[in-house]
Design a protein that fits this description.
Structural class of chain B: alpha+beta
Distance between the termini of chain A: 6 Å
Helix content of chain B: 25-40%
Strand content of chain B: 25-35%
Number of strands of chain A: 5
Helix content of chain A: 40-55%
Strand content of chain A: 15-25%
Number of strands of chain B: 7
Largest interface: A-B, 19 and 26 residues
Radius of gyration of chain A: 13 Å
Number of helices of chain A: 6
Strand order of the largest sheet of chain A: 2-1-3-4-5
Oligomer: heterodimer
Order of helices and strands of chain B: EHEEEHHEEE
Shape of chain B: globular
Distance between the termini of chain B: 5 Å
Order of helices and strands of chain A: EHEHEHEHEHH
Chain lengths: 130, 152
């Protein structure tokens, strides 16, 4: 089953890389919504439903941690799984984000196989049916 | 931080292993490139495109990256899946060198100080290169990348 994906990163080239990595991992994407920061992500989510959100942490305007808090505090978005994709890979940072409700964490740099492994754990039917 | 509180270049012996590991890991994983040889001390040549990362938090300093133009074009093609016959745009190349700097800096710091609480702010660097012995050059098939890290 193809999924509706949102990629949140202030770098257009990194958003493009993540899209390519999803394709390389064999994960079918029905639609891919892009946002340059957390605030833009929330605006887009008001009009567009997605199955999973992949977000960076360090972004201008609204960072990934604030986005995660906002998503978890809203009944409309609190059940959407959020996977953090970031260079920031310290143990305490990852632990804090998981406690906030992140479903998984992918450290940059990453190979498509790592993305597939984490997303397959978060959304098993994605992996099984693509 | 040193006693004077000023920026200094970390001794290469302290960091070169971490930088070399970071270069190999990031370039292979995200750019499908492998270094042709071990890193060596060498400052960037004029004409390189440069980016730097401001390091803040429990550690402060700056990471510097320079890439020869031809190589940066190749890295941009690899990263974005652009055909070899198609020239990447300048904006794309600037964005890619910033991403590369961010990932290299993060990968090196996570090897040097895994528990440090840091924020990284990346941008393009202009102006003359400060040539010194702290630069490391990494040879790839289509040119060299140069890295340097300075910590307070």
């Amino acid at each position: 089953m193809k999924k509706r994906v949102m990629i949140v990163d202030d770098s257009p080239v990194m958003r493009s890389f993540v899209k390519r990595a999803l394709a390389a991992a064999g994960l079918g994407v029905e639609t891919c919504v892009e946002a340059g920061d957390g605030r833009e992500a929330l605006l887009r989510l008001a009009v567009q439903r997605v199955d999973v959100i992949l977000t960076d942490i360090n972004m201008p305007v609204m960072d990934g941690e604030s986005l995660l808090r906002a998503l978890r505090g809203d009944g409309m978005t609190q059940s959407i799984p959020v996977v953090v994709v970031s260079t920031d890979s310290t143990e305490h940072r990852m632990k804090a984000l998981l406690e906030l409700g992140a479903a998984g964490y992918v450290r940059k740099p990453f190979a498509p196989e790592r993305l597939c492994e984490v997303l397959g754990r978060v959304l098993p039917d994605w992996l099984e049916q693509t | 931080m040193n006693k004077e509180g000023s920026v200094r270049s970390v001794e290469i012996g302290d960091t070169s292993g971490a930088l070399e590991e970071a270069l190999t890991h990031v370039l292979e994983t995200m750019f499908f490139e492998l270094p042709l040889d071990a890193v060596s001390k060498h400052s960037p040549e004029p004409g390189c495109i440069r980016a730097s990362v401001k390091i803040a938090g429990s550690l402060r300093g700056r990471f510097h990256l320079a890439a020869e133009l031809r190589l940066l074009g190749r890295l941009t093609q690899s990263f974005l899946g652009i055909d070899e016959g198609e020239a990447p745009g300048e904006d794309q190349q600037r964005s890619v060198i910033c991403e590369l700097a961010n990932m290299l800096c993060g990968a090196a710091l996570s090897r040097l100080m895994p528990d440090a609480c840091l924020t990284l702010e990346t941008g393009i660097e202009n102006g003359p290169v400060a040539c010194d012995a702290a630069w490391l050059a990494c040879p790839l098939e289509q040119g060299r990348v140069f890295v340097k890290i300075e910590l307070e």
